[in-house]
Write a structure and sequence with these properties.
The chain has 398 residues and is of the alpha/beta class. The chain has helices spanning 16-31, 46-57, 63-87, 119-126, 152-163, 197-205, 213-222, 274-284, 310-322, 351-361, 385-397; strands at residues 3-8, 35-40, 92-95, 102-104, 113-116, 130-134, 137-139, 145-147, 168-173, 194-196, 226-230, 238-241, 253-269, 289-296, 301-308, 329-341, 368-371, 375-381.
């Protein structure tokens, strides 16, 4: 008997037919003699709809109340899926995040899991029940509901798999695995049989929407082998693990991220401690900074540009002007980030040249460049993002 954790995204449970489809997948796994814990997201566009409802009431709702509101989406999903499982003869029980034992810090809307108390889940499994857990949510020290941020259900599933030492953690989506690019937008993409944690983490962080980056971080930390597969088409998916075969591929994927803002500070004093002052203030506001570019100015001054999520740009701008007293600060929200990822780049030259050639051939201007051992990222105009991904993919894979 194996213990299997299965996670289903919002599109997989968006309506009655999809819910019963998921129920049959879960029941088949359970009837094969396995213990099963299921983690589900809110149905379809429920989370976006709830955010829109909040916007009708307030232009700046408190983060605590947003968590109280958004957590309801997953509660609808778990109850409906449990009903469907029981309807087809598979005993199931639904648990909210806090009933399942998720304890988090106090960072509303983007909380992090501090511990997972698994007694309730284990107790229900011992009664031969399928346990259906609401992803994306937990409880903090104040007994307030918290949410884990976008893609938090993936993180919930991996956390359960790690805590229970599950034999397998399956992430079901509306695609059949991890592809070299989004197969819905780029032609001739390839599905990967395997990919390493490091490569998947880079792709997830750079805009690939198959897996949440925090879930991959957690899987890597606790060595939880993941399988990404389709809830609609029963074919083998992509395995994400510590060591994967290279399959002769230098590059594992091309990704884009349109949730990018570029903030530029002009005429910053060129003296020790300046960067610490700037980025320390941003860290205090939990603003994640990605690419940083520092250029030499004149008269003892320099210019600093960095990228962050578009939703955090306004806060960053305000902090820099009010707390750091920088007056000459601007933000550009018309950007996107395109990236290529692959461990094979470490030992092969010319990959960057091909990426830049693809964009040059399509008259795409590069504003910023960032590199690491396994990735190259470029900031470009958002209107060019889809064209850039297709051109780079064609140059590297066709």
């Amino acid at each position: 008997m194996a213990l299997i954790v299965q996670k289903f995204g919002g599109s997989s449970v968006k309506d009655r037919d999809r819910i019963f489809n998921v129920a049959r997948i879960v029941a088949n796994t359970h009837n094969a003699g396995n213990d099963v814990v299921v983690v589900v997201s809110a149905q379809g566009d429920t989370t976006d709809d709830l955010i829109a409802k909040a916007a009708e009431i307030s232009h700046d709702p408190s983060a605590r109340e947003m968590d109280m509101l958004l957590a309801t989406g997953e509660q609808i999903s778990i109850s409906l899926l449990s009903m469907a499982l029981n309807e087809i003869g598979c005993h199931a029980i639904s648990l909210t995040g806090w009933q399942a034992g998720f304890r988090t810090d106090r960072a509303y809307t983007k909380a992090r899991i501090t511990r997972l108390e698994t007694e309730r889940i284990s107790s229900e499994l011992e009664r031969n029940r399928v346990v259906v857990v609401a992803g994306f949510q937990g409880l903090n020290k104040l007994d307030d509901i918290t949410t884990l941020g976008r893609g938090g259900s993936d993180t919930s599933a991996v956390a359960i798999a790690a805590a229970l030492h599950a034999d397998r953690c399956q992430i079901f989506t509306d695609v059949e695995g991890v592809y070299t690019a989004d197969p819905r937008k780029v032609r001739n993409t390839r599905k990967l049989q395997e990919i390493t944690f490091d490569e998947m983490l880079e792709l997830a962080s750079l805009g690939a929407q198959v897996l949440n980056n925090r879930s991959v971080e957690l899987a890597k930390k606790y060595n939880v082998e993941l399988e990404v597969l389709s809830s609609l088409n029963p074919v083998p998916g992509t395995v994400v693990k510590e060591v994967a075969k290279m399959e002769g591929m230098l590059i594992k994927g091309v990704a884009k991220d349109t949730d990018v803002a570029v903030i530029t500070i002009l005429n910053v004093p060129d003296e020790p401690g300046t960067s610490f002052k700037i980025f320390g203030l941003l860290a205090q506001k939990n603003i994640n900074v990605d690419i940083i570019l520092q250029s030499t100015g004149r008269d003892g001054k320099k210019d600093i540009s960095f990228t962050c999520a578009q939703g955090e740009a306004e806060t960053a701008l305000r902090v820099l002007k009010e707390s750091a007293h920088y007056a000459d600060v601007s933000v550009d929200t018309t950007c996107a980030k395109v990236s290529i990822v692959g461990a094979g780049m470490q030992s092969h030259s010319g990959v960057a040249s091909k990426m830049f050639e693809a964009m040059s051939n399509n008259n795409i201007n590069i504003k910023m460049i960032s590199t690491s051992e396994i990735k190259i990222s470029c900031i470009i105009d958002r209107d060019d993002a889809d064209k850039a991904v297709s051109a780079i993919h064609e140059m590297l894979f066709d």
